[in-house]
Amino acid sequence: MFEIDIAGKKVVVVGGGDAAAEVFDESRFAKAVVPPVSNLRELAGDGLFTAFNSEPAWAQAHNVLMPAFSQSSMRSYHEVMLECVDGLCSYWAAQATEGPVDVSSDMNRLTLEVIGRTGFGYSFDSFSAGRHPFVESMTRALSFVSQSANDLPVIREIFGWKALRQHPKDIALMQRTVDEVIAARRHGQSPRQDDLLQRMLEHPDPQTGELLSDQSIRNQVLTFLVAGHETTAGLLSFALHYLSLHPAMVERARTEIAQVRDGSGPLRFEQVAKLRYVRRLVDETLRLWPSGPAFFRKARTDTTLAGYPVRKGQTVLVVLLALHRDPTLWGEDTEVFDPGRFLPAAVRARPAHAYKPFGVGARACIGRQFALHEAVLALAEILTRFEVEPVPGYELSVAELLTIRPERLQLALHVRA
Hints:
Elements: E1 2-6, E2 9-14, H1 17-23, E3 29-31, H2 41-44, H3 56-65, H4 71-95, E4 101-102, H5 103-120, H6 133-148, H7 153-159, H8 161-186, H9 196-202, H10 214-245, H11 247-261, H12 269-272, H13 276-288, E5 294-299, E6 303-305, E7 308-310, E8 315-319, H14 320-323, H15 327-330, H16 344-349, H17 368-385, E9 386-390, E10 398-400, E11 404-406, E12 410-415
Parallel strand pairs: 2-8
Antiparallel strand pairs: 1-2, 3-5, 4-12, 5-8, 6-7, 9-12, 10-11
């Protein structure tokens, strides 16, 4: 634990288990929305990910949307997820003979298509058309938001003036696209569906009895489109990277998938939860490379942290990349990819604060089960259909926007007989 100065403010940095356990105490610390996340407010306002704790829109949206991530709701998303994964696999089957595939880019295509179709009944035609204008704008906007968290305004004005002028145009296009989707559904120009958008349009906050405003619905849609696809895309890319290096793990996963599938048809909803080894592969990937490598908390009152005084409102940065590699929690081989760390006995032996890839407390990721189901399903289908091999000479390099992912990850694929 140490203290750094960020833009004139003292920030406590935590990476060890004992201090992290204190910071995760909701009675003493809360989520802090600071750059780069706060820079997204220009796009998504008081969405679930970007809202300040004091803003009522967050609680209202959370109350409305929680049932959308129940087990019964998850079942309704499964078939669309399968269709999206099948679209990826068909695209890859056509590409496989032409050389390595661009895994990082294609995982973004997949996960954006999944959240677009399951959440809002909107297809980006990810595997049948050129890059959608929304995707172009979102990519530029996320890059701008991430970069602007580190740049002084005067530097950005001098050297980044083109991006500075493009950014409002990108935000306007994204917001306009979402407004059109909402309007089409509200006025019956697109079919009614049992999805996140329909829930936000029809279901009031059970505590206040009020429906979400169109502004709030737009903010939530943009939040899910941005955060809901970037995170899972990075997770799947990292997982495929490690699996390309561990063929024995791939074979073990395939054996489990074949046993659970019990036939030649696609995986059914209830079968995905039975893929326990594949789930451990996902969990271990998130240990090494959590989609959000760190997150901010702030002290609710004057308190202490590991015996040191912390003032009310002071920001604490929890570095998950360090916490998830703490040898006192994970052993001395923390850089080794080992799904055995998530066997039930091993999980029970570790303190709960050792592993927090989805955040903590009331503001933890609402879509956790959605992301895990999507990731396990996608990996199972990919490993069933393809041999996955590393490209000679590739060394893992990590790129960071708001989340992290392998940079320029390509893999050689061979369609399995």
